[in-house]
Amino acid sequence: MSTPQQTPAPQPSSSPAGGASQAQAEAAIRKARGALKRYRFMAILTGVMLLILCVELFFKYVVPVEVVIDYLGWVPFAHGWIYVVYLVTVLDLWSKMRWGFGRLATMVFAGVVPVMSFVLEKRVHADADAKLAALAERYAA
Questions:
Q1: Mind listing the pLDDT tens digit for each residue in 68-78?
Q2: Rounded Cα distance, 73 and 55, in Å
Q3: I need a surface site. Which of 21, 62, 71, 92 has the fewest CB within 10 A?
Q4: Which helix (H) or strand (E) holds 119?
Q5: Cβ-count burial of 134 within 10 angstroms (0-12 exposed, 13-18 middle, 19+ buried)?
């Protein structure tokens, strides 16, 4: 889903200002890891709420059970607002990781396709973690 040569990482500098470059890289990596944690939380929460929404819709339209509908009437509104927060975390992570538009579109659609958010979250986390670990190793040397 992502291309490995999208944006070259900044080169470490051997000049006296190289420390500032390393400090900036460490700060960027720390911010990206924070964005990744927020994304993971929201992807899982959005996926759970989407599954609950599917259950609510099942009991509303397929097997009408008034008691269940009364208790789950709040789910569509909650999922809608949680999805908005999910979109903010997706944009935050996407911009910090400098991924392509295909990855952004896939992450956006993962919040509306049941179970896709769980699958994509695992893949996004693995890709981002590998990229951040490589950058951290590059600047640690």
A1: 778 888 999 99
A2: 11
A3: 62
A4: helix 116-140
A5: exposed
